[in-house]
Amino acid sequence: MNTKAISKALEAYTSCDVADALSKLKVPHGGFLAGLTMWSPKRQEGPTKIVGPAHTVRYVRKNYENEPQPSGHYIDSIPSGCVVFISAPARSINACYGGLMSTRALYSGAVGTIIDGRLRDLQEHRDLDFPVFARDVGTTAPAEIMRVAAINEPVRLNSEDQDAVIHPGDILVGDMNGVVCIPQALAEKVLDLIPSQVEADEKIAADIKKGRSVAESMKEHRADVKKP
Fold first, then answer.
1. With 57 labelled, which of 10, 79, 158, 199 sits at a CA distance of 20 to 30 A?
2. Integer angstrom CA distances of residue 145 from 5, 64, 137
3. Is 121 annotated as ligand-binding?
4. Per-residue pLDDT averaged across 111-117, rounded?
5. Across-strand partners of 150?
6. Is 120 part of any known ligand binding site?
7. Strand, helix or coil at 217?
8. What are the helix (H) ranges across 74-179?
């Protein structure tokens, strides 16, 4: 199954469903990328969900002279159907993504943007109804302190608590629960595992509403969940 078909099939499930499957496959933290939350079209509210292959952009401190300097603007080359993942230097005060970037991303057919850093122009993203996830919000453009050094290369999550790398083509899933990264090589396995676990949870929920204990219902229904 190709990436487009897998992404389409995953739209039926939540980031939590995906994380459960990744946990069974021994992916640390179920692929969860901590600290990245939904800011647009609403703040941690509503049915918004993005699913698609990662198209990565890495910013570096402006004075990193030994880093490459790609020509052109990264936003003009993003492919349709992708999730733009932007990595800013850790603890950056300035934002690295604004309203004009979402305007172009929407025109190009991107399904959303995830920023390991700050965004700005929040109302502009919301007016576009374009999904944006980020660590925080800011006011100031990036040029003062940072620049793009790499496009569509592996980037490392800015976190002191987890060691996660996002590779181009990894499938990113984001909703109001958070953001999960599915390694490209595991995508079909994840999709294979999810349906039985979702079905089991639905049966358990139905039992609980009828007064049955969680322990008893889990013992019955989770025994049938598909194993890796």
1. 10
2. 39, 10, 16
3. yes
4. 98
5. 58
6. yes
7. helix
8. 99-108, 122-128
Q: Alpha-carbon distance 152 to 115, whole Å?
A: 14
Token digits of residue 104: 């172009």
Judge whether residue 224 has pLDDT over 80: no
Please, are residues 122 and 140 in contact by the beta-carbon 8 Å criterion? no
C-alpha distances in Å from residue 167, one per residue of 53, 55, 56, 70: 9, 8, 8, 18
Q: Which residues of 172-191 are buried (b: 16+ CB within 10 A; e: fewer)?
A: bbbbbbbbbbbbbebbebbb
- What is the CB neighbour count within 10 angstroms for residue 216? 12
The dihedral of CA 117, 135, 174, 189: what is its sign?
A: positive
pLDDT (tens digit per residue) in 131-141: 999 999 999 99
46 annotated to a ligand binding site? no
Residue 100 annotated as binding site: yes
Could you give all domains of the chain from N- to C-terminal order, each with its CATH number? 3-184 (3.50.30.40), 191-224 (no CATH)
At residue 16, what is the residue type? C
pLDDT value, residue 220? 86
Distance, in Å, from the CA atom of 174 to the CA atom of 216, rounded to the nearest integer, reads 32
